[in-house]
Design brief:
Shape: elongated
Strand content: 15-25%
Number of strands: 6
Radius of gyration: 20 Å
Number of helices: 4
Distance between the termini: 18 Å
Helix content: 10-25%
Largest sheet: 4 strands, antiparallel
Order of helices and strands: EEHHEHHEEE
Strand order of the largest sheet: 4-5-3-6
């Protein structure tokens, strides 16, 4: 499920239809096979393994992952909770806010149309002007397609949640955001064990 650009087309909600908002979490996400993608290489830079870490086994058991992933049983395997091996590295994974190619093209077209209306000059002129300075929107960074149940977004329209990581020499205890990620690239709020 977690592959570069894989879209399952489904969002996870609780069985009773309840939507739980997680602003802060004690559960952290680790992606042991994460690699920095190179153009044309590393088609699945997030790899095939996701690990979740918490301070206690009880916290992980409360997630009831088997129930949540039941519809994916042909694609995902949930293993039992195990202790972290000694002498592991530590890493923090964080969200990178990045505009995708479609969003950049849409914004470029809106700005060009506005300027063409304002000046009376041809739309093509302004499209060329704004396209020349627009970012490339190349989606070379690993991402998962995620779904927001807030902000008025329809459940069928996902967005790319770009993920990056840093490895550090020491553990940092703290909380994670609702995705199990560190909130900030520059300030380490919490790390997870990182091993293969």
């Amino acid at each position: 499920l977690v592959q570069h650009g894989f879209d399952s087309g489904q969002s996870a909600t609780l069985k009773n239809g309840e939507i739980k908002s997680l602003k802060k979490s004690n559960v952290g996400l680790s992606i042991p096979e994460y690699v920095k993608p190179e153009k044309g290489k590393n088609l699945f830079p997030l790899g095939t393994i996701i690990r979740l870490f918490a301070k206690s086994a009880e916290e992980l058991e409360q997630l009831n992952l088997i129930q949540w992933l039941l519809r994916y049983e042909d694609y995902a395997q949930v293993k039992s909770i195990k202790p972290v091996p000694d002498n592991t590295k530590h890493a923090y994974f964080f969200r990178v806010r990045k505009k995708g190619k479609v969003r950049i093209e849409k914004k470029t077209r809106q700005m060009a149309a506005s300027k063409a209306d304002e000046t009376g000059e041809p739309l093509e002129k302004w499209l060329q002007h704004f396209s020349a300075t627009a970012p490339s929107g190349e989606d070379e960074m690993p991402y998962v397609t995620s779904f927001s149940l807030s902000g008025g977004q329809s459940p069928s329209s996902g967005f790319p949640l770009f993920i990056d990581m840093r490895v550090i020499d020491f553990p940092v205890e703290g909380s994670f955001n609702g995705y199990g990620l560190n909130n900030n690239v520059d300030k380490v709020k919490a790390t997870v064990p990182w091993f293969i």
